[in-house]
Amino acid sequence: MNRRQLFQLLGSAALAGRAKATGSDAPLTRRTLGRTGRWVVPFGLGGQASLQYPPPGMDVADIVVRAIELGVNYLDSANAYGPSQSIYGEAFWRLAVTPGHPDHKPALRESLYIATKTGQRYAYDRSRPTAATAVSELLRSMTVMFGDGKGWIPDGAYLDAIQIHNLTTMQQVDQIYEGLADRGGKMPDRIGALAGLLDYRDGTNFTGLNPERKKYVRHIGISGHQSSPVLMNAIQRDELNILDTVLVALNANDRNYSSHQYNVIPLARAKGMGIIAMKVFSAGGVYTGMQRQPNNPNELILSVGVPGGVPSEDLIRYPLGVPGVAVVIAGIGKIDRDRPERDQLVSNLAASQLDSTSDAEMRRIERAVAAQHGTNTNYFQDRQRGIVQPSAPRIQRDSDRVVIQWNTALAGPEPIKAYNIYAGEWLLYSLPFRPQLTSAPLSLTLPASEVGEAPIRVEAI
After folding, report:
1. Are 339 and 281 in contact (CB under 8 A)?
2. In sequence order, what are the beta bridge partners of 219?
3. Which domain, by its residues, includes 415?
4. Which of 89, 102, 432, 440 has a CA positioned 20 to 30 A from the CA of residue 46?
């Protein structure tokens, strides 16, 4: 099916109205969101753009309604996105997604994957008893999206996911893990986000923060824009496999920065996590050149792409060519129910339904973006440093063997292919690259007779 046929089909499906809004009626391709086991359409609705900064006179809840009518089932928001969550709440009520609605449609609710985010690193901090926490933001999301916005949450309401938002430093990773090992014992004065959210996933009260043992969320994840090493550290420390998803910035300029597609994404894929790509348009910066997030309606892009720019469908399709990516999210500035060719939702969804993006096509898109828009679009991402080699390996020798241990290298603009193990200048072994899944180092054991006494080094290639 070509792009024009997709536009016609999607436009017809939307015009059929809410009776078509179960998602399963739309003939859309789907991908599995990692170990969540959920099938998602490869384009999801982002919670920013007009949902965060509603243009005057626009019925922004209709963006959500139209997305669901079209078959989009991954829906993103965050506590930090202003009215975004309440706009979702209005749309859910219109479509009878909300539990307690007189015409509640449980099958429609089950077809959706509703994900929000918390920017808080702690679930509890005795020294700041009135401060917002990951738990208070979870409860806020629940009442705003499904309840009265004042604290009441209807029976049967739940989120599919809550993600700990925008991890940027190793200290923040330390913070979200605080108290996790203490669950079931005496809890510390500060409890990290993971321990608190885990109680609301499992319906337990090990932290003392869920006395009614509510189950309000099915999956927990993390998100990040800036640093693959930070996200990798968070994932490697997750010995209990709490983190089911990672939401990460990924676009056609990724390889000009500290690449996510060759660092955190292969690790997340190896651990079976669901991978969601964001910032595919660099928050519109690919087209506008703006080096920050829009902060008012006048800065939003309301058209499908821009004249003379790289086609928006290329920017959607690029991250879908990265192995492991299940879904791409993008905020929507404007829909047009009368003219699907001018509807950003229809355009983005149609792009996600085209054939898989080949390596050659990804390189073509990279070149086009660099030529037409430059490579300085990813203001949110660490700059490229080239390949970062492992630090000095740890060596354990005994009479008949040598154990060599090292922590992962970081890829540059190309993926790491192998680790070469040298004794002096002599190549002992070439080990095909594999991600370091945990905090435990990578390891190789060789016969002592092969290694000798020369100094050993590990080099990623």
Report:
1. no
2. 161
3. 394-460
4. 102
Please tell me the predicted confidence (pLDDT) of residue 186: 85
- CA dist 415 and 387 (Å) reads 9
Q: Tell which of 344, 373, 402 closes a domain.
A: 373
Tokens standing for residue 107: 């099958």
Angle at 165 between CA 277 and CA 253, to 5 degrees: 35
Angstrom CA distances, 384 to 19, 23, 226, 381, stand at 49, 40, 11, 9
Among 282, 303, 300, smallest CA distance to 292 is for 282
pLDDT tens for 296-334 read: 999 999 999 999 999 999 999 999 999 999 999 999 999
Answer whether 64's CB lies under 8 Å from 70's CB. Answer: no
Is residue 329 domain-shared with residue 403, that is, in the same domain?
A: no
Q: Determine, yes or no, domain membership for 311.
A: yes
> Can you point out the beta strands (E) in 165-273?
190-192, 217-224, 243-249
Which pTM value belongs to this model? 0.94
* Pair (125, 239) in one structural domain: yes
For residue 288, give every residue at least 6 positions away whose Cβ sits within 8 Å of its Cβ, in sequence order, or none: 299, 301
Same domain membership, residue 316 and residue 197: yes
Residue 248: inside a domain:
yes
- CB hemisphere CA count around 309 (13 angstroms): 20
